[in-house]
Design a protein that fits this description.
The protein is of the alpha/beta class. Helix content is 50%, strand content 13%. Bound molecules: guanosine-5'-triphosphate (GTP) and magnesium ion (MG). Guanosine-5'-triphosphate binds next to α7.
Length: 318
């Protein structure tokens, strides 16, 4: 059974996707109109569909690939009615995302061990906010969580993390502004070991320096973490702002080259009509999206679930 039938035949577990994706849904509504007014499946229809997908920021390479797949499927299945296309579109989106493998969205978490997650990404994408949200989730699961103010560069960055510490009721390790980030992490991790913490979330500065500096700083932080806590960091999470679309993906590329990223956190999906970026990321980077940000509140961070996501996008649609 295709995903389409499976998804639309049941009630969703979590309606936050549908709510958070309202802007992307408006964009896709034009898809419905296009299919409804088309009499036949022809090049004009394919062109119109292609435009909608580009608008949704699926990314040009991904759109080209997607359209090829769609055309092939229409031919193979000998589909004539444009209305039958919706089902195939949903199924193909799902296939692109999965790439024939199971995507593990769980964060790597070792029980009975100190876990360290490092957050990297361009400034303003939502690293600090995401750390605050995630801290709350782990705290609610009964874990002992520490936040580390590794952004010692931007004025106000430390205080911002301290605020998130208050909201999530977690301890924040800080040193004074201008300290070497690696030394902050070093001291924080030693304290975390001594006081038997379960999870340490490290904030980092998001300024885009020269690539060489960035690489040097990130690899230094990583070396420190690896040395103090063997097996860590369990996750190096690249945070990407969905509203910046393809441009944001290009900026994030630098971080991907500078350090070994294990997963993506896609923020501000609530603020964009370009929800297709999910497929672009999957198609271009071989990295799973682990969490998505659907708002500014502490509860607005959810584990990424491609089925829920596609359901959220197309819910009012069929
Ligand atoms: N709507 C919405 N806003 C978000 C989301 N995540 C973060 N934000 C907002 O994005 C802005 C920047 O977030 P920060 O967490 O400060 O970003 P940062 O990556 O730490 O930025 P720097 O410290 O400057 O590198 C804040 O106003 C957040 O409230 C989200 O999922 N949805
Ligand atoms: Mg920050």
């Amino acid at each position: 059974m295709g995903l389409f039938k499976k998804l639309f035949g049941r009630k969703p577990k979590d309606d936050r996707y549908a709510l958070g994706l309202h802007k992307s849904k408006e964009n896709l509504a034009s898809l419905k109109a296009i299919l409804a007014k088309s009499q036949t499946i022809d090049d004009d229809l394919f062109d119109a569909l292609e435009d909608v997908f580009i608008q949704a920021d699926i990314g040009i390479d991904t759109v080209i690939y997607f359209m090829e797949q769609l055309r092939k499927e229409v031919k193979d299945q000998d589909i004539k009615d444009p209305n039958d296309l919706s089902e195939i579109i949903v199924d193909k989106m799902f296939e692109i995302y999965l790439k024939d493998e199971l995507v593990d969205t769980e964060l790597h978490y070792d029980e009975d061990k100190l876990n360290v997650y490092l957050f990297v990404g361009v400034n303003g994408v939502g690293k600090t906010t995401t750390i605050g949200k995630l801290a709350k989730q782990y705290k609610d699961m009964g874990k002992k969580v520490m936040l580390v103010a590794g952004d010692t560069f931007r004025a106000g960055a430390i205080n911002q993390l301290v605020e998130w510490g208050k909201r999530s009721e977690t301890f924040v390790f800080t040193k004074k502004e201008g300290s070497d980030p690696s030394s902050v992490i070093f001291d924080a991790l030693n304290l975390a070991i001594k006081e038997k913490y379960d999870l340490v979330l490290c904030d980092t500065a998001g300024r885009l320096q020269t690539k060489v500096n960035l690489m040097a700083e990130l690899s230094k932080m990583k070396r420190v973490i690896e040395k103090v806590v063997p097996g860590a960091p369990q996750e190096t999470l690249l945070v990407i702002d969905a509203t910046t679309g393809q441009n944001g993906m290009r900026q994030a590329e630098v971080f991907k080259e500078a350090t070994e990223v294990t997963g993506i956190i896609l923020t501000k999906l609530d603020g964009t009509a370009k929800g297709g970026i999910v497929l672009a990321i999957r198609h271009l980077y071989d990295l799973p999206i682990k969490y998505v940000g659907l708002g500014e509140k502490i509860t607005d961070l959810v584990m990424f679930d491609i089925e829920q996501y596609i359901y959220g996008l197309f819910k009012d649609f069929f």
